[in-house]
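ok trying this again, last paste got cut off
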Amino acid sequence: MPIVEARGLTKVFRRPDKDPGLAGAVKHLFTRRYTDKVAVDHVDLAIEAGEAVAYVGPNGAGKSTTVKLLTGILVPTSGSVRIDGLHPQRDRIAIAHRIGVLFGQRTQLWWDLPVAESFAVLRDIYGIDPATYRRRLQQFDDVLELGEILPMLGRRLSLGQRMRADLAAAILHGPEIVYLDEPTIGLDLAVKDRVRELFRTLRDAGTTVMLTSHDLADIEGFCRRLVIIDEGRIVFDGDLQAVKDQFARERILHVETERAVPLDAVRAALAGAEVAAGETPVQFSVRFDRFDMTAGHVVASLSGLVNLVDLRVDEPGIEDVIRRVYSGDLVLDQAGSSA
């Protein structure tokens, strides 16, 4: 049985529809009008234990609302959610010990306490034994550099410092399932790399991770499954590498040569590739399908024509694919997905 399972999950928010100003507020007291906003629309989702799932979509697509439904923060309008067979709203205490949640825009630290005391409160809430607590704090300090922020009050933390502390707080009790909603917002590049390494450590230890992020570098090299939601509905659910293999096949090799070479000669040597002139006579680019020819083959063919001075390869990633999905340029084939 999946450890996370949603069936027909739907959330509708009812918002007052009133005219602006005092007159509109008074009128609404007597004539109430509402507009229904469907944030999550009949979502079916099953996540197996130990999976790392990327849950992505444009702003307002329903990502954060889905996470709140799966954690029991929100009650669904219709449909069902089960976490390892438990009901998130009914079995809140049991669920709380099994999940960890990080919302990039919200904190679980106590604003008027030092970070170290917030951690101590969480230690007591979850009943973490002292030896395990010290070991985990040391592990997190090696990655997140917590030492400098432990004495600081929660309200005095910068965004990056708060994110590091909140990530540690979310996984301090060793949860089986971790929901990460924009977990690297506000972090510098060096810390992002260490945080992503921590994600991989969690995954390799068997923790189930659901990751929502606009920074798609968080996803590549970590998640093996991609779920795309748009306007509250899942539009794709399948293997991340399969999507890349199908829709991110092209590579562009940028070349600088010792002397100018006729582009027709390059095209003749690389049948099937697209050759375009560069900014100078000794520069050009070669666009090719990596399943038709390798970069090594391209370089070897060019070396037979002219001496190469410089090379650079552009490799489109999953970000390019998802950007095309968002813009409507690409419709992923659900037939081969796992949904």
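PB: full thing came through this time. The CA atoms of residues 263 and 275 lie 7 Å apart.
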